[in-house]
Hints:
Layout: E1 6-11, E2 14-19, H1 30-45, E3 51-55, H2 67-70, H3 75-80, H4 82-92, E4 98-102, E5 105-107, H5 109-116, E6 119-123, E7 127-129, H6 143-151, H7 153-162, E8 166-167, H8 168-174, E9 179-181, H9 186-198, H10 202-217, H11 220-234, H12 238-248
Parallel strand pairs: 2-3, 3-4, 4-6, 5-7, 6-9
Antiparallel strand pairs: 1-2, 7-8
4-(N,N-dimethylamino)cinnamoyl-COA (DAK) binds next to helix 2, helix 4, strand 5 and helix 5.
Amino acid sequence: MDHQTIALSTEGGVATITLNRPEALNALNQRMVSELTEVLSMLAKNDSVRCLILTGSEKAFCAGADIREMAGQSAVDMIRTEHLHTFWEMVGRYPKPIVAALSGYALGGGLELAMSCDIILAAEGTKIGQPEINIGIIPGGGGTQRLTRAVGKYKAMEMILTGSNITAEEARSLGLVNRVVPVGQHLEEAKKVAATIASKGPVALKLAKQAINRAQESALSEGLEYERELFYLLFATKDKDEGMKAFLEKRRPEFKGE
Ligand code: DAK
């Protein structure tokens, strides 16, 4: 597919997807959702890619779903937009780590997209929120669930019921953002984190992500059992042999995802 709304670049095991609809502050329209779905599926199958970065521009990570497009849609139209559900499902269960690098605005579906990623870095002053209530709807891409798990019931209630934004700094203090960096440095910082992640064993990365995500949705005893099973499974990989051998031989490991 010829990409009109996103850009893709890859370097040393890290793929960077840049949202690119500057005229609409990177609002997610159907075209962008289709392009993201296509690129994410392709990168999931590409063994040379071990970590992804999702970013936008300095002015906006993403101002949410495209209101111009949604304005004319009925409930039935929304129910029929199968690709939307496929997309949100796919990002939420993506097999490789994704670092979100925010700047400017991360609102509505934009924040939901960031929360579906695994690590969130933000430039100073980034405005973060779920403003859907201001246009007569509620979050539809997981915001009521993921935000509540991230910041707790009361802050989530305040953000979602009032529709007001918080800053990157406040989001960091709430545990919603990993790190706040100076304006213009969010992508550089994300590249450093992603390069570190990309140097690890891909199978271990995948299973670690799976186990942490399970903690979000299961009882502790079930999560612990799941972790144990995945932990044992890693002892069947060559990467485990290589990682431990490299440690004992005092050299850097070369993980192959086997
Ligand atoms: N949609 C479409 N266009 C948008 C947009 C959006 N979300 N946000 C900004 N734009 C456009 C503006 O219309 C304007 O276009 P022109 O008028 O120049 O043609 C251009 O971007 C620049 O925006 P502003 O002139 O408004 O810029 P300001 O700096 O004054 O304000 C702002 C920036 C971000 C505060 C403001 O643009 C704003 O409030 N934007 C709307 C934010 C918002 O309400 N976001 C939530 C949208 S609802 C689902 C999953 C998810 C969702 C839905 C369903 N399913 C799985 C079913 C998600 C829903 C949402 O995100």
